[in-house]
Amino acid sequence: MNRRTLRRGPALTGALLTLMLGTTAVDAAELDAAAATAVCGHTDAQPALERGSTGTAVLEAQCELNLATKAGGYTPITADGSFGPGTEERVRVFQRCAGLTADGVIGPQTWTALNTWSAEPRPCAPQGTSSTPQASVCGHTDTRPTLRRGAKGIEVKELQCRLNLAMEPGHYPPLVIDGDFGGATQNRVVELQMCANLSADGVAGPNTWAKLTDWSGRNTYCAPPRPAGYPIDGLDTAKYLHPNGAPIDWEAVRAAGVEFATVKATRGLNVTDEYLATDMDGARGVGLAVAPYHFYTGTAPDTGAAQADRFIAAVRAAGYTGQRPGDLPPVFDFERTDDGSESCPPYGTVADAKAWLDRVEAEFGRKPIIYTQKSFLDACLGSTTAFAGYPLQLADYRQSITEPPLPTGSSTWLMWQYTASALFDGIRAPATADVFNGTREDLDRLANR
């Protein structure tokens, strides 16, 4: 299941809560010792500002206020370089969030707190409410040229700032706003494009700018819509959901409404996911139905049986039997290569896939679920009908469809992976999300409950 990004659960994400300083007073000595930082890239000059002030320092303050308070549910204010009543009120809001005296004046302590909160946004109490979206929220430029890796200048600063405002910071660590369109900026553009259902080419063209302008000006973050009519939610886990070793808070995941999980176990002949056991135990521990999955690599001929043996050994060691209450059938991930080429597996055949499926079914007494796509089976296996009798987990991220297209010969699907941009409480990275095609009674039966 290649990682492809839905805001779910309570208003405060588990990820943001780990960043939260709370509303206690900020330590004055620490604030005084901090160096001035131009988080938004306008100026590192940080004079005292109050109602009536104008200029570049006000622009920097307004931009930083937007970055610092949006995670608390506050719609960005206009960044125009003029310190009016709207800016004064937002300063008071921020000062209350940071535990400072709410006088509406930006002095040294407020500047230092702003520098910190805008670089590492966090929620605050009370939460804000929606207000009118703003067009100018970063204050660098109103021009929207097509930008790609290698570009430099204020247009790139505007892009980076808006990306930070559009993408939920607990899952997408804010970019440095330096005006240099490098790899990190390109990756974030791709993540926005995937979230917004655009062509994920990493280039900021007119369509990307339009979505970015929309999301950055409102008090919500980019979130693909969830399919209607399928009330049971699931997700897929792998190492990438543990950035820098961060654990998954499975209690928070369950509280967000997730009822099943597929957990990466193995890839090919030589990779076992290092979080297999902890994620399976964690998900089972909070009552989720859980399935381990194997990513098939057809990079050498006739390896399906050997890949099955590795999978069996790994999941047995992690406690999976396929027969315990909560055990879903194992999942066979059969798709294009994961080396970046998106090509057909060079030695991927129906016979080799069947070798894996047959061996795993014999071991666990459960017919495996196949994760795949109609487009893959059409292009790479000649629209085979060989898998028509298997339950299917189908991947299709298009927002224009109401259910995934079925492979030739298949009559229904079991799970639909509809996004790789889901933001779940308790997880520090965007996740792939699924819905289940059935009732809770159906899920319970499938999970031996």
UniProtKB/TrEMBL annotation:
<dbReference type="InterPro" id="IPR036366">
    <property type="entry name" value="PGBDSf"/>
</dbReference>
<dbReference type="InterPro" id="IPR002477">
    <property type="entry name" value="Peptidoglycan-bd-like"/>
</dbReference>
<dbReference type="Pfam" id="PF01183">
    <property type="entry name" value="Glyco_hydro_25"/>
</dbReference>
<dbReference type="InterPro" id="IPR017853">
    <property type="entry name" value="GH"/>
</dbReference>
<feature type="region of interest" description="Disordered">
    <location>
        <begin position="121"/>
        <end position="146"/>
    </location>
</feature>
<feature type="domain" description="Peptidoglycan binding-like">
    <location>
        <begin position="154"/>
        <end position="212"/>
    </location>
</feature>
<protein>
    <submittedName>
        <fullName>Lysozyme</fullName>
    </submittedName>
</protein>
<dbReference type="GO" id="GO:0009253">
    <property type="term" value="P:peptidoglycan catabolic process"/>
</dbReference>
<feature type="signal peptide">
    <location>
        <begin position="1"/>
        <end position="28"/>
    </location>
</feature>
<dbReference type="InterPro" id="IPR002053">
    <property type="entry name" value="Glyco_hydro_25"/>
</dbReference>
<dbReference type="InterPro" id="IPR036365">
    <property type="entry name" value="PGBD-like_sf"/>
</dbReference>
<dbReference type="Pfam" id="PF01471">
    <property type="entry name" value="PG_binding_1"/>
</dbReference>
<dbReference type="GO" id="GO:0016998">
    <property type="term" value="P:cell wall macromolecule catabolic process"/>
</dbReference>
<feature type="domain" description="Peptidoglycan binding-like">
    <location>
        <begin position="57"/>
        <end position="114"/>
    </location>
</feature>
<dbReference type="GO" id="GO:0016052">
    <property type="term" value="P:carbohydrate catabolic process"/>
</dbReference>
<comment type="similarity">
    <text>Belongs to the glycosyl hydrolase 25 family.</text>
</comment>
<dbReference type="GO" id="GO:0003796">
    <property type="term" value="F:lysozyme activity"/>
</dbReference>
<keyword id="KW-0732">Signal</keyword>
